[in-house]
UniProtKB/TrEMBL annotation:
It comes from candidate division WS5 bacterium. It comes from the Bacteria. Residues 60-145 form the PSP1 C-terminal domain. NCBIfam families: RicT_YaaT_fam. One of its GO terms (cellular component) is cytoplasm. This is PSP1 C-terminal domain-containing protein.
Amino acid sequence: MTKAIGVQFRSGIKIYDFKQKDDSIEIRDKVLVETAYGEEIGTVRYVGKKVGKSQDTPLKDVQKVLTEKDIDRLKRLKDDHLGYADIFRAKAEEYKLPMKLADFEFSLDGEKVTFYFTADSRVDFRNMVRDMSRQVKKTVLLRQMGQRDEARVLDGFGACGRPICCRSFLMQLENISMDMVREQYEGTRNSSKVSGICGKLMCCLAFENGENKSKGKSQNAK
């Protein structure tokens, strides 16, 4: 039996398993791992998951746990290149691509920069990414994300005054239905009361719906 950690990347809510070598890795640590996009930095969401040896693909190792020095370096890299956001917007306008920049980040070695953006539909940005790579003289990746993922990346506070759920503790985004709204906000016709900062129905509706069902089962069992 192998132990795994769960790593979440900025571009989405999905969590991926990587091999846990020892017990020194903790939840919320930043780690460097190898993915289909090359080396990427992710956040540890769980540790100690037991994985059977019968799975088809062996788990990849964690290459490095980021130190405070590494995290400071990444922040300085971004602060020193804030103009990259303007380059992205200018190129999107030049190529007439309806892309809205959410954020960007550097790789640990500073040689790769990843831009996260939203768009209403799939975007063919191949010419734009080549042009940007030539201009900034670095490897450029463009990653499209949904509106709910954008809110998680940008962070913020919900109507309750607490950090948004998708950023603070939810491990996956559930489909939210109007039935959940009717059950918890009976009589409301104001969509703004049940919408998060992303403009979609609030993630906590699904979480609270599950909690209410669990409480109902417990009460029925007594």
